[in-house]
Amino acid sequence: MTDAVRDLIAAYYDAFNSGDRAGMLALLTDDIIHDINQGAREIGRDRFGAFLAHMDHCYTERLSDITILTDQSGQRAAAEFVVHGTYRATDADLPPAHGQTYVLPAGAFFEIREGRIARLTNFYNLQDWLRQVGA
């Protein structure tokens, strides 16, 4: 079962890196719980799709050095990776965007249900990101 979970998470990040947002959404449960880094909890695939559209508007990102860890039950997983990004459009109350680039270690925690991602919690160091974009 751990291989299936590892393959699921790898497919999610492959879809992310190729810009396949529909492919990402297909790997989620309808009631996906998304814990945004230092932000709110959102529930539902539609909300997650809106989050992705917002992120694509403000940022261009590619992930590298992805390491996936799974538990024996096949219900939990984690991933560590490096985000290589460009801040393209000002996001809410964050500093003004003007094409700043950043390289940021990050991680994610997953809950798996019936072969799909049911919860996704992302984490990165916001203060490091702010420093890199010149806040």
Would you write up a description of this structure?
- This protein has a six-stranded mixed β-sheet.
- By secondary structure, it is α+β, with helices and mostly antiparallel strands.
- The chain has a single domain, classed as Nuclear Transport Factor 2, Chain: A.
- The protein is built from four helices and six strands, in the order ααββαββββα.
- The chain is globular, with a radius of gyration of 15 Å.
Q: For the record, what CATH class applies?
A: Alpha Beta
DSSP helix count? 4
Q: Any idea what the shape is? A: globular
Query: What is the β-strand count?
Result: 6
Mean pLDDT: 96
CATH architecture: Roll
| Major beta-sheet overview | 6 strands, mixed
Query: What is the name of the CATH topology?
Result: Nuclear Transport Factor 2, Chain: A
Beta-strand proportion: 35-45%
Radius of gyration: 15 Å
Task: Give the domain tally.
Answer: 1
Low-confidence stretches: none
Distance separating the two termini = 44 Å
Spatial strand arrangement across the major sheet: 2-1-6-5-4-3
Order of helices and strands: HHEEHEEEEH
Which structural class best describes the helix and strand composition? alpha+beta
> Residue share in helices?
25-40%
Task: Please give a handful of descriptors for the protein shown.
six-stranded mixed β-sheet; Nuclear Transport Factor 2, Chain: A; alpha+beta; globular; 43% strand
